[in-house]
């Protein structure tokens, strides 16, 4: 397991993330032979709320970045529950990120299985097949879920790049998600776990080799290691 732990107060973690992403994007896009956009996948939840306002001020050419989501709830984009909607309010709108750079998960589609297949194809077009995202940002639930892969989930984490569930224990129960395998294959995986409520599950993920929570699996499977961002109350 290759995990670098960064411990800072929450506002400094946001600054760390934005500086790290700026650096990664600059390095990747300075390669003159590069044809593909820089591919980034982001979560919803408290990490999005904490990081996106600062991300909106970042020195990044968003026309050269393809923004994907790690997961989405089965609600329309205007819903206060929508991960895309949150990003739009806090970051995409204020930073005028071009619509052509934004790859929203249509988790509200009547045929969510078909929408997940379409999303997998969209991701593969930008990030190759199987997809290798340049940068994945993840939050963690107190039960150790990441994206919308929950402990004991009925989604098969290994079969498809993007999949869905009707049984998420965190409402709403219907969600689309990238698989653990796709998340773990990324060139850079940054996991943010703020707050004392996440300490127990993160300790187990770091210290117990038998831990089976989704976050523990990502820490073990990550092809290029993980950076774990915690505030002072963290593990
Ligand atoms: C979502 C998020 C999800 C989130 C975790 C942690 O749709 O809910 O993308 O994966 O990162 O549930 O949420 P909190 O950070 O709000 O605890």
Molecular structure report:
With 235 residues, the protein is an alpha/beta fold. It contains 7 helices and 9 strands, in the order βαβαββααβββαβααβ. The strands form 2 sheets. It has a 6-stranded parallel sheet, with helices on both faces. Strands 4-7-6 form a 3-stranded antiparallel sheet. The longest helix is centred in the N-terminal third of the chain and has 20 residues. Bound molecules: 6-phosphogluconic acid (6PG). 6-phosphogluconic acid (6PG) binds next to helix 2 and strand 4.
Report the portion of residues in β strands: 15-25%
Strand order of the largest sheet: 1-9-8-5-2-3
Helix proportion of residues, in percent? 25-40%
Radius of gyration: 16 Å
Q: Summarize the biggest pleated sheet.
A: 6 strands, parallel
Give the end-to-end Cα distance, rounded to a whole number of Å.
Answer: 16 Å
Kindly state the mean pLDDT as a whole number?
Answer: 94
Topology, please?
Elements: E1 3-7, H1 10-29, E2 38-42, H2 45-55, E3 65-69, E4 71-73, H3 83-92, H4 112-127, E5 135-139, E6 162-165, E7 175-178, H5 180-184, E8 189-192, H6 199-207, H7 214-221, E9 226-230
Helix pairs in contact: 1-2, 2-3, 6-7
Bound molecules: 6-phosphogluconic acid (6PG).
């Amino acid at each position: 397991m290759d995990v670098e732990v960064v411990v800072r107060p929450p506002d400094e973690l946001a600054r760390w993330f934005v500086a790290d992403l700026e650096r990664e994007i600059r390095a990747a896009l300075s390669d003159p032979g590069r044809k593909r956009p820089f591919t980034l996948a982001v979560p919803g939840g408290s990490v999005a709320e904490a990081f996106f306002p600062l991300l909106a001020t970042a020195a990044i050419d968003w026309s050269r970045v393809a923004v994907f989501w790690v997961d989405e709830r089965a609600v329309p984009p205007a819903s206060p529950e929508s991960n895309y909607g949150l990003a739009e309010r806090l970051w995409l709108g204020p930073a005028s990120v071009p619509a052509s750079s934004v790859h929203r998960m249509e988790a509200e589609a009547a045929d969510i299985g078909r929408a997940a297949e379409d999303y997998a194809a969209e991701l593969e077009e930008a990030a190759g097949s199987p997809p290798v995202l340049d940068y994945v940002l993840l939050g963690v639930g107190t039960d150790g879920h990441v994206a919308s892969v929950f402990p004991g989930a009925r989604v098969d984490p290994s079969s498809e790049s993007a999949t869905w569930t009707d049984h998420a224990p965190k409402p709403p129960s219907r969600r689309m998600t990238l698989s653990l395998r796709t998340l773990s294959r990324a060139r850079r995986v940054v996991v943010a776990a703020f707050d004392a409520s996440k300490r127990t599950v993160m300790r187990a993920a770091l210290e117990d080799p038998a831990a089976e929570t989704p976050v523990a699996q990502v820490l073990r499977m990550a092809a290029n290691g993980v950076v774990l961002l915690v505030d002072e109350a963290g593990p």
